[in-house]
Predict the 3D structure of the following.
Amino acid sequence: MPPQILDTILEGRRSQPNQLIEVLHDVQENYGYILREAIESVSQGLGVPLIEVYRVASFYKAFKLNPSGKHVLTMCTGTACHVRGSHLLLDYAISQLGVKPGEVTPDGLFSIEQVNCLGACALGPIVAENGTYHHHMTPAKLRKLIETLSRQEAEDVQHAQTQ
Amino acid sequence: MLQYVNVNIDGATIHAPRGTSVLDAAIEYGICIPHLCHVPFLSDIGACRLCIVEHVVNGRSEVTTSCTLNVEEGMVIRTNTDKIRRLRRNLAELLVAQAPNSRAIQDIALRCGVKEVRYPFRNEDCVLCGRCVRVCAEIWQARAIGFVGRGKDRHVDYPFGIRPDFCKQCGSCVQICPMTIPPCDGPMKPGEEYLCGKCESQLMDETPGSCAWCKLGEGFGCGRYVGI
Amino acid sequence: MPRLNSYRELEHLRQRLREQRQNITTTVMVCGGTGCRTSNSQAVIDAVRDELSSQGLDDSVRLCVTGCHGFCEQGPVIIIEPGNIFYCHVSPEDAFEIVYQTVMKGEVIERLLYEDPVSGERFKTEAEIPFYKAQDRRILSQNRLVDPCSIEDYIVAGGYSALPKVLNGIAPEEIISEIKSAGLRGRGGGGFPTGRKWGECMDAPSDEKYVICNADEGDPGAYMDRSVLEGNPHLVLEGMMVGARAVGASKGYIYVRNEYPLAVKNSRIAVEQAREVGLLGDNILGTSFSFDVDIARGGGAFVCGESTALMASIEGKVGEPRPKDVHTVVDGLYHKPTTLNNVETWANVPSIILNGSSWFASKGTKGSKGTKILALTGRIKNTGLVEVAMGTSIREVVFDIGGGAANGNSIKAVQTGGPSGGCLPLGKFDLAVDFDVLSEAGSMVGSGGMVVMDEETCMVDVAKYFLTFLQDESCGKCVPCRLGIDRMLEIITDIAEGRGRMEQLDLLEELGDTISQTALCGLGKTAPNPVLSTLRYFRPEYEAHIKEKKCPAGVCKALITYWIDPDKCTGCGVCISGCVHGAITGEKKQPHVIDAQLCQKCGICRSECKFDAVQVF
């Protein structure tokens, strides 16, 4: 893990315990998850006890302690999406991909996240894929989305192999 | 220089130093308010909610935890109303249904008047009282353990789940934990958890609320036993 | 832009900016809010911009990328002034026609106009559309006028007039007294009188004080704060400036939840712009008032909407609430006096200062003054953000504005106030949107979320949904919330899966009562509300689950069966290829059959069948 990025993140924030959450956000954005070394460096850099950094990283859903898949399917399970059947979408994704929220498929391609409301309620049910929002989703549309992404990945692999 | 205030607890006027909690003042005077996460030499967090009392203010009574409420001049507190006893009993019922395999938890349940448990028993070995975390942080300043996770997933753990080298191996966390005392009849098998009720004979039911230096308090390290 | 050193310089700037825009004949407002962006409005924005450029209209026509208009299902939305022409479902390919026909020739494009789902009528202007007509958009209407990333737009529209007014010889006590007379109550859910809160903070002795804007908006189904903060961040900032002046604070925070990246971005830009012109910083407008604001991001925790948890989060700690025996207006952020208010509460402040408390109080009821923004969602025709005067009945909101049931189903209930609120049945729809009225009925106005439910919504499932949500979001510190919600969920799951017993209903009520009285914070205290309100008004549904082991709404998986109606089935085979469990069999053009043993009730066949042949009983 390149130490320079971590130095940049900690710059101007050293010995300021109240910057912990912003720092962890930056670590999450840069590395995709909060590595153990990051927790140790942040603890030293900000002057926050190790157990406290670990505690904050494990408390907030935004911080992942394990790497995510290449395609993160974020299923919104807010009330408006729920009454339009978002639980069916979640059940389908779990059974189709064979992983529970927070886990990654063995090929490292997909992971499922559950979020309690993205704020686009009028267009629900919403499934976000790596930040792109898909609206009015149904189990059938979700099946197509996963199939399309899988097919694209297979094509990319083939393309790379023939290079 | 200690400043003293007068507070009215259950009709008795109590003279207590400013800055003490209602719970400490009551225990000092022999009024028993059941508690679990309170330990006299550690900070109070108000997590177990067993020490709830009615704080009468402007004719209204608010239910609040006595460990986090500091004494003020003229305060009126009721520790043993029917409402408080019912609420406390329901809370203790939740605790004992969660972790019946500890004599301390069973003692607390009995002290709070639990007769039947209406939930399926589980067999957890931690009630998240936080005594271990606080003793590690506040007395030993090691901070080798802490609460991690959230909600149902909240549990006590080392950083990354591995005991760090700065753990002083003092054993205080084990000593102060209420779960380390098995019930009199020994550890229960999963699926055979129950409330034995044998300690009831030790309870002085005729004078509820007054401290009897009851044997039960010894189990969970009641304020009178741990000492101030 | 140069720094403004006095009130007069601000007014000169306003004048200058207005003069610069005198040659603008037409304004094209394209919505760039989160909802419309999901429907690809960025492509529309780019297409319109390119088209205007290529037609050489850059000097006479202004393209304004606005915040949310609140009618997200109709997006992408474009409004053209003058004329108040409202276009919806705009695609990038329409850009040429819009510029050529409407902007240049003043002609309306019929097919882009809003079509009323009930009457089929097409409406030309925004003001005529029934959804908007029945509203009272004191705050939301301002979203049309400004590009959230432009402080110039805000100033031209009249913004930053309240701040100079309060800096110009009005004592803090007078500001607070005005807010008190207006009767403004917290719009985040608590409904606490804002003037009183400010007064208590002002009285608390301290050299350092804070103001905080709570933009955590954790209630699922609520996105009012998102729209206001995304679409008009300067309005919120100005409100905070007035508040800071009143209570004596020199530092403020806007705490935005992590799931609102656009709101985070736009508020950061707004703060930067305000700092640049000197409206934030030292000696604002040449007075002794100094105030600065920082944006703090949430980490994905609903509990951080609770004031003490929010403050802990700003301090870099876990969002665990602490007991509030001493209020946060005295002992708050970093143990200093802190005034925390919701986005919408702050957004109401500038207009109260400018138009006076009587103007504000002229709408609303005796106990609840002003307007409230509601997020109307669920099983109705028109969903979106709705701003109405307090005192409007639920019936008006759901039927007049919401257009009644979608899909021809009958409406059964409305859930208000998010996970802290409750469900009210159709029979109670004449109740007014009013803090005290709804609380008495067992629900609450809360932050403004209003989810409409119909006969296909199971109320036991709704209770189960909210308990699952709260269990997930609970911080886990105190026994009643952590263990109590868990046990309530255990009981409700028993009921939903056909193992319920009648005495469990009494236990639910008793446990709910205990939790509401003993929990440490608001999350725990209000957690039983969805359960208790559904028990109160929809007990027959619970009893059906227990006594008859049936789910009348057809939702609870353990109690329903999927089957194919042979009269409707055309034997097309779409469901067979869609079923991932191999549960459907049938010949081509023959009615298909679902094997109930294999069926997992995942819903794919139902969503794929074009003949509505898959039924649930």
Summary: The interface with chain C takes residues 45-50, 52, 63-65, 68-70, 86-87, 90-91, 94-95, 97-98, 118-120, 127-128, 147, 149-154 of chain B (CB under 8 Å). The longest strand of chain B covers residues 4-9. The CA atoms of residues 30 and 211 of chain B lie 5 Å apart. The beta strands of chain B are 4-9, 12-17, 52-57, 60-65, 76-78, 146-148, 155-157.
